[in-house]
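Fill in residues.
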């Protein structure tokens, strides 16, 4: 060994010694050494930066669940909310969202996977996948073949949210189990004075119109879209606003009397109305003609800076007791079969949340659209929202 080699060896030895004594701080996104969780159950691996950035729907989790995750793993959760799939998609396709977990609906996730937005899940880090209901897993595989990029968080339907007293006052025999409440112009006009709201969800709403018209809800035939738009424009004078979150409190407070909304949101409005004790009785009707069944999916963007933390959070949400608490809190069904006995009895036995097999057979998925149809749909929806 020559002198130069000896000096190089000494430098390497010193460097290794310094590294063993602490060295430099790991970069964000790199793995930290395995550590035991606060629950003391097992060694877990986190990202070096103990941060997790989540982007989820509004009013869609038991806030105490987030606190418990933070306490157990020492990871700070930054939790942002949205109320439209279109908003999420725009951010994802633009890139560099800064989020580690996002929760798009399956129809949007489907085309986002095609665009290469998400990274495949490391199923070895998701020990609680075994808890999932095979039926739901099979249904969402239509959007995510092989369930490679996502896990179902919660699922539900869209239907008729209404104030019992205000509707009965105007129409005692109102067909609250039918899309006629919105799509029969003569009927919906009866409730214009007390306030009617519709979700700002173009593909889902157009799909329900097509169900009402007896057409294929996922049709991309321009003639079918035109038929749906024609009907929507006829009822537009009776619609107070188009929004996907405002209606929850408005329905609870008696500011509106009728909302085409998501089941869990309507039932949250019901619970808030009951707590307020002001005489507003809120109910949810699942239309007998059939309805859209949606699935909201947990996925990790390809450029997520904390993918290990993201896997930990997904696996945490898949614990039976955690899934049960979220369903009980937000009134949405989950796909965690092991959680069903733990879900609040009133929620578990509510057929609007957990429909019977017979009713499930009438529910249809909201499938992904082609880019060409999305452009047509966007223009049509803008005309409806603006009323011109």
């Amino acid at each position: 060994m020559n002198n130069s080699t000896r000096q190089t060896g000494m430098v390497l030895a010193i460097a290794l010694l310094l590294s063993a004594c602490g060295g430099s701080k790991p970069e964000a996104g790199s793995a930290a050494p395995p550590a035991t969780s606060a629950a003391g159950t097992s060694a877990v691996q986190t990202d070096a930066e103990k941060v997790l950035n989540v982007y989820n729907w509004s009013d869609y989790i038991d806030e105490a669940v987030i606190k418990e995750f933070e306490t157990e793993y020492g990871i700070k959760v930054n939790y942002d909310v949205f109320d439209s799939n279109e908003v999420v998609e725009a951010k994802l396709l633009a890139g560099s969202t800064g989020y580690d977990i996002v929760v798009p609906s399956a129809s949007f996730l489907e085309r986002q996977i095609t665009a290469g937005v998400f990274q495949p899940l490391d199923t070895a880090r998701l020990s609680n996948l075994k808890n999932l209901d095979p039926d739901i897993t099979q249904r969402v595989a239509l959007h995510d073949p092989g369930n490679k990029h996502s896990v179902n968080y919660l699922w539900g339907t869209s239907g008729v949210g209404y104030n019992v007293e205000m509707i009965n006052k105007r129409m005692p025999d109102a067909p609250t189990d039918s899309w006629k409440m919105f799509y029969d112009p003569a009927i919906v006009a009866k409730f214009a004075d007390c306030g009617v709201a519709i979700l700002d969800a173009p593909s889902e709403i157009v799909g329900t119109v097509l169900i009402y018209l007896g057409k294929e809800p996922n049709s991309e035939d321009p003639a079918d879209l035109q038929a749906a738009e024609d009907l929507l424009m006829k009822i537009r004078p009776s619609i107070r606003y188009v929004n996907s979150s405002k209606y929850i409190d408005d329905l609870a407070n008696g500011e509106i009397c009728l909302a085409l909304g998501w089941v869990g949101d309507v039932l949250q409005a019901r619970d808030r109305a009951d707590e307020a004790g002001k005489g507003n009785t809120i109910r949810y009707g699942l239309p007998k003609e059939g309805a859209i069944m949606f699935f909201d999916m947990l996925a990790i963007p390809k450029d997520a800076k904390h993918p290990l933390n993201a896997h930990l959070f997904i696996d945490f949400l898949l614990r039976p007791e955690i899934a049960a608490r979220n369903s009980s809190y937000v009134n949405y069904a989950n796909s965690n079969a092991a959680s069903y006995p733990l879900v609040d009895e009133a929620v578990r036995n509510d057929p609007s949340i957990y429909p019977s097999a017979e009713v499930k057979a009438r529910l249809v998925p909201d499938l992904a659209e082609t880019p060409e149809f999305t452009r047509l749909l966007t223009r049509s929806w803008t005309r409806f929202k603006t009323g011109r």
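The radius of gyration is 24 Å.
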